[in-house]
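Teaching assistant here, posting this on the class forum so everyone can see the example we discussed in section. The complex has three components, and the goal was to see what a joint structure prediction looks like when all of them are supplied at once.
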Amino acid sequence: MQVTLQTIIGGISLGAVYALVALGFSLVYRTMGLVNFAHGNVVTVGAYLASTFYLSTKLPFALAMMVAIAVTGVIGLVIERVLRPLENKDFDLMLIGTIGFGIVLDALIIMIWGATGRAVPSPVAGAPIELFGLRIRTYDLVVLAIAALATVLLVLFLSRTKRGAAMQAVAMDHEAATAVGIHVGRSNAIAFMVGAGLAALAGGLVGPLLYVSPTLGGALGIKGFAAAILGGFGSIPGAVVGGLAIGVLDSFAAGHFQGYSELVTFLVFTAIIMIRPTGVFGERTVNRA
Amino acid sequence: MRIKIAVVAGLGVLAWLLPYTLDSYAIHVVNVIIIFALLAVGLGLAMGVAGQVNLAQVAFFGVGAYATAILTTRAGLGFWFAAVLAIVITVVIGLLVGTPALRVQSHYLGIVTLGLALAFTNWVTNSQIAGGAEGISAIPAPELPGIDLSSEYLFYYLELIVFALALAFGLFVVRTGLGRRMRAMRDDSLAAGALGAEVPLLRMTAFLLASVYGGVAGVLYAGLIRFVAPESFGIANMFLLLGMVIIGGRQSLIGCVTGAVALYLVRELLSDHPTYAQIGYGAVVVLVVVFAPTGLAGIPPRLRGLRRSTGEAARLQPFQPYEAGASGSDEVILIVDAVKKQFRGLKALDDVSLSVATGEIRGIVGPNGSGKTTLFNVISGLYKPTAGRVEFGGRDMTNVTPYRLSRAGLSRTFQNLRLFGDLTVRENVLVALDRSRTLDSWQYVLAPWLVRARDRRLRAEADAVLERFGLAEFAGQAPKALPYGIQRRVEIARAVAARPRLLLLDEPAAGLNGEEVRQLGEMVRSIRDSGVTVVLIEHNMGLVMALCERVTVLAGGRVIAEGTPAHVAATPAVIEAYLGDVMEIPTEATR
Amino acid sequence: MKLLRGKRAVAAVLAAVLATGGTTGCSAPGAGDKSSDDSGPIKLALADAQSGQLSSLGAWELKGAKLAVSEWNAKGGINGRQITLDVFDTQGDPTIGTNLARKIASEGYLAMIGTAESAVTIAMAPILKQEGIPNITSGQSTGLVAVKSEFLFLNGPTSTTYDETLAKHVVDGQGIKQIAMITNNGSYGKGEHDAFLKALTARGVTPVADQVVTTDQKDFSAALTTIRQKNPKLIFLGAEEVESGLIVKQARDLGITAPFAGAAPQGTPVFLDTAGAKNAEGTIVSSPYLSNDISEASKSFATAYKAAYNEEAELHGAKAYDGTQIVLTALKSSNVASGKDLAEAIRGTKYEGLLGSFAYDETGVGIRATSIGVIRGGKLAAAAG
């Protein structure tokens, strides 16, 4: 029982990070119909930027994160500009085009920061909280809180602000939105910027949990994408639920199947997708045939 | 033709002499390139030709290589026997990996196959029998009497022969019925199904082909490198393969091969500067995708297209009417009985019943959103009705798949045109003409001449159909480049080419000018006279009045009137429905 | 017109055939001979992952090997000839490894340094053996010995040595019997797992827990909670630097206080940084290179390393440095021999290196001792006793 609960706790803490990655995937997809496979590499960029500001310029962690999110958001704008011709194109092209972009980003990361990576000390001191024999890291709680806050802010932004409402409209009907005078291009750019910002948030938060290296984002990207699909691609609550689910599934598979955990995780994932192809919350797409 | 043969023969001779000019490093690279080219052809068949996003190709490769390694080193089998078993195993795995394609497509299929590929590397990394992370070494070299295949120079000839056969077979598949049907499915799986393509079976065929090529490549890899380890079959190589296929041009197998050769050579040349190579390779991929989505293979046709545009434009010829055949009878061909169709909260069809007599031209009219297209979708098997039944040709066809209905003699067109965009006009018609079963594809291996003969016969028939519809001069063109009215006519020609007993036309006059509408009326009447029953949805009341013997009026998902055009036009409920339509501007709820 | 073009194509093909056929005559393909240069620079190859997941190992190795080569060049090279070290990127992929092995052979390199990854080295070994190119690898898997190539040498001890020494220290020396194991399923972790388990079994000790994780796992709660419940006195750790660091960090967060023990990776700065110095305190390490100030040689190596790259030297660089030194020494003693003679020269080389005294036997292993160190106050120091 204790093992089970502790496994769930471990899964949820990484699951929160997967959820943030999945949010970025889904936000970009629902707005512009682009599956951005470079998203994982953007996570790496965010992680490097956050750790650089935190370690080298000695900014406080929170401030370093903000700066990293802002810079990554700008990078997101650049990526959107380059990939714009791919929006709403057929999936194969998007797949390989964004993978190509990811490869370039990876190489740039190695050129700038080197291949060896760096460890980031935890910004939150304080011993883990002990509860009925279970241990919960304080930093995990911080990650969960920030992830929850980011989700709430995103939902508020989409539902309460004018710009967010415009993005919702674009997500629901591209052509109708254009017809009523919404600037689709600007909506897309903002979606991409926010998506990249979320990636930086995920990368920055995961830095102290793991180890920042050029390969950091690869695994997070695949798991985050799987999470987005599992929750229902394009759905905001779906991304959160999917992220937590993949995190917990992963932890359980690791506990029960040891080295074979990845095999089990993906077999279970395949089975779920076969049973319910549109994920938990159903797909939200731009244009359905 | 002669030039083609000369080029192929020349390439053959050059390939045969190539090893004489290469040192041992270069020949090794060439041997590896051939293996990647084989993989790329397999991926091209699945992804480019059949449109199945298969990110497990590298795992098929791995299964083939690992199976050979395990069977030779652990079970002590001879190389060739192990090779055959390995290919069989790969195919079984390939079909298993392909089953999700029956339920999901596009990015869903992508992540599922990618996940399964990761699961494969995870399994070999752990499994004792697969040698764990260190892999299996000392795989015996394949043996042929009198030929030492442990020499990479001689192994090259083995690879060359296998590759030539595999490529020829792939091209044969693409250029004949099976490949055409897969390409049609890629462009529009709904329309392909409605024309009789067995979509589930074709998707599995795509994975079957991909896994055969993957398995063969794996066997050759095991024989060449004689060592297998998990890293060779990882995600990086999958992306490399994808890059090869996209850069080369995924819809053309020759393009896939070109891409494989080009990308591998470039990577090999830049191997001393890995980071720059990485940037270059990534940038090339992005540029190709953005500016040349058809890849290297797409460049020659583009250039030719530029040159051709100065030539004389093709012209539409008049339709040549059929000779009147079987006349109408009292037999009922279609019965719709109390059909209901519900979408979440919305009742699209509510208790709709109608019956159509053989040889009739029936019109279905109604305001926008009244459920007309939904009704067509239920009849042609695209939607399952919530309740009620559909009888066609005297048999219950309520939940029968579109391709079975098509084979039973039902054909249709679509409101918003569903032509296969990357097929030529002739090929669009050929897809419909070809009534052979996908299960008969064993002929490709055992009796290719039968396939060839059938294809030749079909081509002649297709040309006859195009001639009749006045489309002969457009035969070789891509439909999306044609004017709208001509596209409409191509779609009708295609639907008729399937030789239906019942033809459903969904707003055939939409977007046509007056003269075109007149020609359409003539065409439909002649089609009926040749013995085909016609049901059409139409907003053009003039056409309906002139053409239809009986008219059914739908409003709000219910039948509100039925009878001769004149009778219906005088019915108060109909007038009210149409007035209401004008007043409140309905929403488009069906497709 | 058509016919003419056809004819021209045939003619072109024929010309090409004559050209290629004419130059080579009718011999079997590939019968050409390799030229090896007797003047000009002495060519050494370094093959390692310079990109991809394992590129950090490759980067360290390159630094160590380069240092050795530049020292020799500064002293005037060998027989007046300078030494060049060219880098080949394996990307950690065995297939690319075999390409590179062929390339290294065809371009006349005398010997090869690397790779750091056993699977790639094993893939390359048959080709290097066939072509007669001695190879000093940084792998430590027993699988390398099983290849049985007289051209393959290790620049450090095998896992067996590391773990036998460790088991001797903790079981025989300190009398610890309650030991848990956590290892990954990669080639390194698997080798460690098997070697340490064998050493324990030989001493009649059964581990209280034996958890296997994957190489890219991020959360270890399940495995560590299981271990915690068994209440071990010591946890054996078989994983690369970063993953080891993560495991130790998460273990401390879960309230596990037992010390960890492992082989070389647990003594590196990367491990210390990832785990956090406080968490790594007390970790027992079996390594042939405990620290930069263990001997005069290591001190000067570390100084030179720092001067060249502005970072602290570590084990992998030291190993590659030793391996390269051995090859260069053998080249000198054999008067720049190649092929089998060079391999024999390496086998005959007795070398006092950073890792200890090297003397190769027919298995290709040249050093069979490691020392035990303990991390105290964020530094690895030799263990007392």
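For the discussion questions: Residues 1-27, 31-35 of chain C have pLDDT under 50 and may be disordered. Chain C touches chain B through 59 residues (CB under 8 Å). Think about how each of these relates to the inputs above.
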